[in-house]
Each structure stands twice: as structure tokens, then as C-alpha cells.
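Entry type: protein chain
Record version: 2
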Amino acid sequence: MKKLNQWFFYMWLPFFISCADSKLPKYVELNELRVLSLIADKPEVNPSELVSITPIISDINENTALTFEAFGCIDLGVSLGAEPSCHSNPTKVSLSQGTITSATNAQMAQNFTGTAPAFTAFIPPASSIFSQRSSTDQTNGIGYLIEYKISNSRGQSVNTIKRILVSNKSNDQKNLNPVIDQFQSNGATIGVNDFPLNGVYKIALTFDATSFQTYRLTKDDGSSETQGEQLTTTWFITDGSLKYFRSMNQDSNEYTAPAALPGNRKSFLISISRDSRGGAVFHRICGGC
């Protein structure tokens, strides 16, 4: 029950609030093994498609290696109270497993914080994933779950679930990931290694207009309504402090930066921006990289 409560907390909280004071949960502080997001290259797909999943992880105290395994399964009713897991799910399949080291990619060489190795998932055919599902469900989307388990050399483990929508909508009506145009600090665009120091900074993301999609939601009675996409950004830091740990759409946040970079590791300021249908985009500012 505890795992289920945590799942719904992190799944739905972004849609209930526009921003949150940093004195509340320390969820945004990167000081232990974390999976910040699983980003699918296509958050809404047709049956029988291949999807690439990129984990966004952080473990600033790791200096050896991380191990992972990934599974996929058809969602049997997470929104109705089923446990958000592929465990004991009859449709469970193994997707990938392996070891992540500092040689995996440039971001993993920088305190194991950033993009971990991607893996692919094959979405089941329509005859399987749409079996005994209503036409309304097929139009709005059936969930396909990605379960990602990661462990470090210190015996810590984290288990994360990603839900991909599988629908019969035309491709031009399917959800897309948000697209970041710029990361701004005090109104100026900054690069991925331009980490702010020794001051208070107004930080904000600007998004491409395609990030704010409109879409049709079909109701049980067959009618439909048009809804507009809203973006929620969660901020993560290793140093300094934030005024808010979440912001909506293109609203700004306030970051109080440290006076100097730590001598024993890199510093990170990370944003994960999500829409209401599973789309997501990641941005990382690294100090000392």
C-alpha cells in the first residue's frame, strides 16, 4: 500500500498545484540514488510500435557502477487501484539489463547524474493490448507500463514506473514530448555548463509552441471535448536552494546559487518538464563540467 500511495502522490501532485514552496518535501535534493524520469521518445503510440526509453538518473555518491533491469507489461488497471508494477502481471516481458559505469557516456562520468543508457520496448499488437477494451478506451489510450529497477554499489535500489499511452488515434493527434527552446537565467539564455554562482537568479524555461497541444478527449457517452496541454516542471538541485520545487508552463522560479562549486564533485541544476499525458523533456545545467 505504501508503494501505491507514493505512486499516486508523484503521478498526480503536479496537476493539483501550480508551484510549491521548497520548505516542503526535500524531494528535489539530489543526494542519493534517484530516478528522476523515464522519457519515451514517443509518449503515445500505435500498437506494434517500438519505443525508446531514456532513464534520467542521479547518484552523486556513486563511484563504481550501477546495475539496472527493465520490464514491460500491459496496464491492467493502475488508474483503478492496481499496483503500479509488472510483478505478477501475466504480460510481463524483460526489456533490458546491464551495468552503468563512468565510461557509459559523458553524463554518467559526471557523478552518475543525467541520461543513462536507453533501451527499447516493443508495444504489443492491437489484438493483445486492445483485447476486451472499449472503443472509448482505445481512442483515449490504453496504458503500457515500463518498470525500471536500478541499484548502486552501496546496496540501495530504486524502482520506477513509466506509463505509455497506446491508442488508435491518427499520428497527427497523438501526444508528443514538450520541446525546450531556451533555459534562461535573469532573462538571458545560458548554456548547459553555465552554472550560476554566488547570487539569486530568476530561472525559467521557454517552450516551443508545439509543446502546448490541444487534443480531443472522448467521454463514456461517446461525446468528446477539447482540452489543452499544461506543462509542470519539477526542479532538482545538488547545491543552493529553490523558492519553488515545481512551476507551471513558462512560469519562472528563483534559485539561490552557492558561493562556489564543491571541490569533490560537480554541481547540477536539473529540470524535468511533463505534460498531462505522459510527455516529458529533460534539461541539465552542470557546474564544473
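Comment: The longest strand covers residues 142-152.
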